[in-house]
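Render this sequence as a predicted structure.
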Amino acid sequence: MMKIPDLDADRARYPESAWVREQSLWAITVYRFGRWNDSRPHDFSQKLYDRIYWLLFRIVETLTGVSFTKAAEIGPGLRIHHFGNIFIHSSVKIGSNCTLRQGVTIGNRHEGGGVPVLGDDIELGAYAQVLGEIRIGDGARIGALSVVLQDVPPGATAVGIPAKILPAKTPA
């Protein structure tokens, strides 16, 4: 049986029976399979598995509405709540233990433009849009329906259209 890197970390963030109830895990598994296959020697089986990857990618993309190719760099522990309408540009970099909710788009602002880099432990609310050559710092939170067009510092929360950085709360 093949051991696919980072898939165990992804699965650990899902409930026990996720294969049946959480279709987003299908998309993550296909993504991890494609990344694993690309790391293998270029021989006949690698080419065959690549064709299988693209077939599975299109099937899962159509069934789930989750679209990110193996070209994107996504750290271990990805969790997608409430699958559907999730689009991630193929050049995006996402850190470890990030959480996406339905309707999230992470990509460029115009064709050929730069794309976001997301740190570790980021949470993106439903229908959040993160666009352009920006950085989202570790532990940042992006509110639902926000459109982020600027850097977000580590640990900050960004909300609104366009998103504004909320002041950090001081401990009481």
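Summary. The chain has a mean pLDDT of 94. The chain has one domain: 7-165.
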